[in-house]
Write a structure and sequence with these properties.
The protein has one helix and nine strands. It has one helix spanning about 1-20; strands at about 30, 50, 55-60, 65-70, 70-75, 80-85, 95-100, 105, 115. With about 120 residues, the chain is of the alpha+beta class. It is globular. The protein has a nine-stranded antiparallel beta sheet with strand order 4-3-2-1-9-8-7-6-5, with no helix packed on it. The chain starts with a helix and ends with a strand.
Amino acid sequence: MKNLASISLLLLSTSAIACGQPPNPLLGKWKLSMPAGSKYAAFCANPMEFTATTQTLTWSWSSKPVTEKVQYNAAQTAVYPTTVYVMGNSANHQTYNFSSKNRMVDDSAAGCTYERQ
């Protein structure tokens, strides 16, 4: 019985490691998707880049990229629509809602729409 329990535990931990985290659709480079004729959106970062541990945002008022360490909560990302939460240096989080793997909208008052570069 002890051997059976040990084998079961080993199989469960191996399958959990093999599956790993769900894929994070946010990783990569993103650009602002604006209506024709628009030059910039004052409250939208553009461009943005996300790695496994950082985000780099460039804001129109500074034009300087700002990088910070982040953590992601990307659950149920195998189907769309889906959502990814980003937690950075503040106690708040940013929410990105994906309609597909290449289009997303940030969940803010500005409602900035992005497409993958």
